[in-house]
Amino acid sequence: MNSSDTTTTTTTFNHHSSYSYSSSPPSSSSSPPTLPPSTPPPLVLSPCAACKILRRRCVDKCVLAPYFPPNEPLKFTTAHRVFGASNIIKFLQELPESQRADAVSSMVYEANARIRDPVYGCAGAICHLQKQVGELQAELARARAELVNMQAQQSNLVAIICMEMAKSQQYCAVPPIHSSESSPDRALFESDSFLLDDANLSSVWEESLWT
Description:
By secondary structure, this protein is mainly α. It has helices spanning 2-23, 49-54, 73-82, 85-94, 97-116, 122-173, 184-210. The chain is 70% helix and 0% strand. Helix 3 packs across helix 5 (97-116). The protein is rod-shaped, with a radius of gyration of 59 Å.
């Protein structure tokens, strides 16, 4: 009796378990598993060119970092060679942040000029530029004088052309004198010449008679 009950209970459990497994949805239709969010790579901060050259630790609020990036070491090397790191830091701390970038550019330019010309430095470059400006101003003044002269010549030429055109139009307006028309002056001149010819002929005739 006990063995049969046990067998019946086992069969019933197996039947229910197989039914529950068959009624469950297949694993292929389930949603794919979500991957965990990828963590961004750690941000590695490189020291600025000034701190790298000076071999010191670059802090978060480094005064030189915004103006001397790590990819431009020659910029700080040139300025440091002429002014020195302490003077550069002192200059930047005395200025407001809005003027520091221009100050750094000016220091780098002056340092390059001092390296190229140790005697005159930036003053030599300024004198050379002023000389070029003076030469260009003189050339501009000569060009303006030539322009004024050419404009005067053009105006004189236009005036002469206008006068010649007015004269030609005046000559065309006067009617020509025809040869068939005889004026009183011309008739008087012809009569005088005729009388003169008769007197000459009479004198010649008298001379021939006496001879």
